[in-house]
Every structure is written in structure tokens, then in C-alpha cells.
Specification:
mainly alpha, about 75% helix
């Protein structure tokens, strides 16, 4: 099986189907990333923009890297940033009515909502660079080196930012209390 780098090289040489194979390999992962970051509706449009931008810039791809996924996350992140800059300020505030959809009165659901709220607040407290590295490593399952490539930074910088994010989350007061509560629940079982 040809590597992504080989397919991109073939695409540059005129093989029209080669880049389509790169898209098929990474469409689900990049689409899920965009959906988590921008919502389902926006992600559909953004995904098309990512493929067009990737195709147009494929000549700049460093083919010494066999897998294109980190590069594609970088293209997707640039499209997301452009999308966020283009939105009116009032759209940046989440619609509170979405929180009520699927509301469930059981205590386990309440605890889950509380947990998500605490974690969301803790993540919001991170610096943007820390949050980007953390989400690429934790949610997108990239290595720290691949996250660094995605963000255009040295691997050592990405490792430092990931460490800082982990320490900040671990030391956030609400997260620390949440972890203690979870540990006491586990011990009581």
C-alpha cells in the first residue's frame, strides 16, 4: 500500500485518483475533528474547504513524512481559524437552549453534566497553544511530534505545552475536587 507521501507525489505528477485516496483515508478523522470544533453544520462546509486547500497546497507537503494526517489537521485548523474569524461576535456565545436538549433528570446524568461543565471550564482556562496541543494528543490521537507538526512548532515546545496543560488541569480547583469525588466513589464500591 502506498504511503500518503507517495500518493501526494503521484497526484503532483498528474494521477487524478491519487489524492482522492488520501482523502478517503483521512476523511472520517478530519471530519470528526471539524465537527467537535465547529459543530455538524459548519463541519460539512469546512471539510470541503479543507480538501480544496489541501489539494491546492499539496506541492508544499514535506514528503519525507509518510503520513499526511498531521498536515491535514494543520490545514483543517487553518480553515477553522478562518471560519471563527468570519463569524459575528454574537454567534460566538453558545445557544443555551442546546443544553436542554436530551436533558435527563437522573443523578448519573447530572454528574456527567457537572463533570463536562467542570472540564469545559478548566479547558477554557488553558492558553490557546496548550489547549490545541492537548486536544490534538488526547482527542485526535496524534503523537506529540505529530501535534507539533500540525501546529508548526518544534516537538520540544509541544511537549512543554502538553505538560503545562496537564499540570494546569490537574491543579484546577474544580477539577481537583472532581477527581477527589470520583476517587471516593470508586473506593466506596
Amino acid at each position: 500500500m502506498a504511503s500518503d507521501a507517495e500518493l501526494i507525489g503521484r497526484s503532483l505528477a498528474g494521477d487524478a485518483d491519487a489524492f482522492m485516496e488520501v482523502i478517503r483515508r483521512h476523511e472520517v478523522a478530519i471530519g470528526a475533528y471539524l465537527t467537535r470544533r465547529a459543530g455538524r453544520e459548519a463541519a460539512e462546509d469546512l471539510l470541503g474547504d479543507v480538501w480544496v486547500a489541501a489539494f491546492e497546497s499539496r506541492g508544499t507537503y514535506d514528503r519525507s513524512f509518510p503520513e499526511a494526517r498531521p498536515w491535514l489537521y494543520g490545514v483543517a485548523l487553518n480553515r477553522l481559524r478562518r471560519h471563527w474569524r468570519s463569524r459575528p461576535a454574537e454567534d460566538l456565545v453558545p445557544d443555551a437552549t442546546e443544553l436542554a436538549i436530551g436533558w435527563d433528570p437522573w443523578p448519573a446524568v447530572d454528574a456527567g453534566v457537572d463533570t463536562r461543565t467542570v472540564l469545559r471550564a478548566a479547558l477554557a482556562g488553558l492558553r490557546a497553544e496548550e489547549r490545541e496541543v492537548l486536544t490534538l494528543v488526547a482527542w485526535e490521537d496524534l503523537t506529540v511530534a505529530d501535534a507539533a507538526r500540525t501546529l508548526g512548532m518544534p516537538a520540544g515546545t509541544a511537549r512543554r505545552l502538553l505538560h503545562q496543560a496537564r499540570v494546569a488541569l490537574r491543579n484546577a480547583p474544580d477539577v481537583a475536587a472532581l477527581l477527589m469525588d470520583l476517587n471516593s466513589v470508586k473506593e466506596s464500591r
